[in-house]
Each structure stands twice: as C-alpha cells, then as structure tokens.
Amino acid sequence: MSQFIGLHMRVVLRDPAGHLLTGTVSDVQAGISLTLTNVFLTATREWIPHIRIDAANIADLSEVRCDGPDTNLPVPKTTLRYQASRRSSPTTGHRSTDYEQQQQQPGLYLVPSNRRVETISTLQMLNIENIAANEMGFSEALMAENAGRGIAEVAVTALSDPAMKVRFEMVVAGASSNASLRTSTIVILAGNNKSGTRALAAGRHLRNKNFDVVVCLVGIERERDLLEDLRRQIQLYRNFGGKVLSKNDFFEYLRKGTGSASGLPISLIIDALLGLTMSFEELRVGDQASVYELMEWANRNEAFVLAVDVPSGIDPTSGKVAIIDGGHLFVKPRYVVAIGAPKKGLLEAVTPPPHDDSGLSSDIGHEDVWRLFIADLGLGSSIWRKSGTKIRRGIDFDGKWVLEMKYRGLDESEEED
Q: Which Gene Ontology MF annotations are present (predicted)?
C-alpha cells in the first residue's frame, strides 16, 4: 500500500454525514482504516495534525489535484461585479463577443485548454444526430462505436484514479488478497435507450482489452421489443463472447460470486439505465421496478459509478432529481462522461445553488466530487453548422478522443460595489 503514501486526498464521511476533510495519506490498512496528516476540516475551518478514519466511515474519497487552487482553503473573492444566476451570463441587451468576458462566465471548461464549452438540450442533441444520420450518412451504429470507445476510455482512466485504487484496496482487496483492479469486474447497467446502446459498445471494447465485464440490460426478456440499434449491439457483444443478463439473472450472478471464496470484486459500475429521452415514469411498470432495484444496488455498492451523459434519476434538461417511490433517487456517480456535447441538465446538476436561494437546489449533494469528461462522437464542424446551436464549429478535442471538464462558478457571496 506504499504507493498511496503522500497522496493528497479529499474524504467525505458517513458519520457525521457529509462532513468533508482533506489531508495527506500517511498510512493505509486494507479494509481497516485510512490515516491522514495535516488535515483540514471543512465544517469547522480548522487544521488538525492527523486523523485515523475507519474504512466503513468513508462515504467517498478523491484525489486533490495539483493543477489548480486548493479548494479546501478559503477562496479569494472574484473580481467580477455583475449579478449572476446559477448559470447566467451578464444581463446585457446584446450577445457579448468578448472572449475574456465569456471565459469569466460560470459553466463547464475543458481541461487543460480552459476553454468554455456550451451545453445543449436533449432535443438539440437529437436534432444534431438526425442531421448526421439523414443528411451526412453518419449512422447511429457509427456514433455508437465512437461513443462506446469514449466511454471505455473513461472507464480505463477511472481504473487508474488514485482514489479508486485506495478505495479498492481498502474495501475489496482487504477481503481478498487475490483481488486487483486489473482482474476486477466492470458492471454495465443498461436500459432500452441510446445510452444503453452505447454502453453495450463500450462493454465490447473493454472485453477486447481483456477486462471482465458483466452486462445487465433492463428489458432483455423482451428482446424483440428493444431498439433496433440496441439489438445490433447485443448481437455484436454476444459474438465477441459476452453475455447479457436480465435483472434477476444479474442478482443471481452476484449471489453466486459473493458466495465464492474470493467474492466478486467489482471496481466500476457504468450507469446507462435511463437515457436522455425517457423518464422513469414512462417505463413499463415491470421495468420501473427493475430500474429502481438496480439504482438502489448501485448506490449501496462500494464501487465507483461512471454515468453516461447524465446520472439516471437526474433530468437531462433541468438537472432536477427524480422523485421515485415518494423519495428523491438518482445514481450517485464518481465520473460522468458527456457524449458529443454536455447536456444542460449536467451543468444544472453540478451548479451549486445561490447562497440566498436554496429553493433552486436540485437536491444533489454538491459536496460529492464528480469528475466530468466529454467523449468525441465524431460529429464534424459541417454537422454542427447545420444544427444551428451555439457550438457552431464543434468542440475542439485537441487531437484527443476524450477530454476532462471542470465546473467553474462565481463567488456569489461577493458584495456589490
């Protein structure tokens, strides 16, 4: 475990619930505890020399990056003087073309270029994909292949995240000396939608790289009723040696794995249960029950979650959390990968509510750290120009297939001049 010593980590505690602290790793006992030194307690804004945290009391943890200011220290007040809403630009009577002013707006920014990237609505994304397929001959099968490769690349990146390594060593490897991230299991939870189609393609890419992948597809019992593109990906996945399980078969598979000597070491869960166009309420009653159980299981599991486009249970347009069975429920991710372009609901979900108006909160725990990525769908600038969105020239991926994004906001507590 010496490879984790010296990492600067952010830890969210289960008790007291939601309490956040950061410090430098000085000791890790697999399955037992994590010890930090030079610890900053966010709730009380004080420093303590060291702290030992039981593994069972860790709700979430992430590495504190060194490519920006330390978010655990008091942040200097911004020098901007205009009043901002959750994601508003200055309220002028015309559209600003000033690049510097645009870069000062709250929103999502690409890493490392620090360029602001515009979000689009679900309908705009569907329109762009229709233009690509119908006018340019760029089929959904090609888009699924590109998206699947991007999702798979983010999954591989996630497996190298120091936070995942620490968590896996403490929770999984502590129970099985033979477990390792490279030999662990990646679970894909998919629905009958485009996100599910693309997640299946990602599963095939990961299997081809010798990762152990388990796919659970809601509705597989009625395979003939599934989307044509999804059925094509299912056939491809099977042709490459994979199995697609129903919810019942999946839980039975988990029970058998848990009962084995080494257990079932799950390192990552890919969430593609609900796509961009169908809400939980629009599902069949039986599928609603399956999705609900799988969402609850994903949140109970110690593995990190990678969500496709927007976490299931979060509205892709408003960013609001769905009310399911009388309570708020969404799959809580560690990673989110936007396909083609970030959706408006993702920006809303990661935008903290104004200090003076908690009614705008989307009920998401903003203390959770989401690592955001964007995957190239293969849409060229000619398609973006035809779409009529603000992203007229497309997104510059700097020669890569996947880029990381970060949310950057304004300090709204600043007093007006």
A: mRNA binding
The CA-atom distances, in angstroms, between 189 and each of 86, 167, 243, 245 are: 31, 21, 13, 10
pLDDT band at 180 (very low <50, low <70, confident <90, very high): low
Mean pLDDT of the chain: 82
Q: Domain tally for the chain?
A: 2
Closest CA relative to residue 56, chosen from 7, 4, 10, 15? 15
> Are residues 213 and 344 part of one domain?
yes
Q: How many residues does the chain have?
A: 417
- What is the structure's pLDDT at 365? 47
Q: Are residues 48 and 117 in the same domain?
A: no
pLDDT in tens, 333-378: 999 999 999 999 999 999 987 665 544 444 464 556 799 999 999 9
Distances in whole angstroms, Cα of residue 327 to Cα of each of 18, 184, 330: 19, 33, 10
Angle between helices 228-239 and 194-208 (to 10 degrees): 10
By CB neighbour count within 10 A (0-12 exposed, 13-18 middle, 19+ buried), where does 357 fall?
A: exposed
pTM confidence score:
0.77
Same domain, 111 and 42: no
CATH number assigned to the domain comprising residue 37: 2.30.30.100
Name the band, by pLDDT with cuts 50, 70 and 90, for residue 4. confident
- What's the domain range around 329? 106-352+363-408
Instruction: Give domain status of residue 93, yes or no.
Output: no
User: Are 279 and 194 members of one domain?
Assistant: yes
Cα–Cα distance measured from residue 413 to residue 411, given in angstroms and rounded to the nearest whole number: 5
| For the chain, percent of residues with pLDDT exceeding 70 | 80
Q: Are strands 335-339 and 371-375 parallel, antiparallel or unpaired?
A: parallel
Cis peptide upstream of residue 16 (ω within 30 degrees of 0)? yes
Q: Which tens digit of pLDDT belongs to each residue from 234-249?
A: 999 999 999 999 999 9
**Whether residue 58 is found in the same domain as residue 111:** no
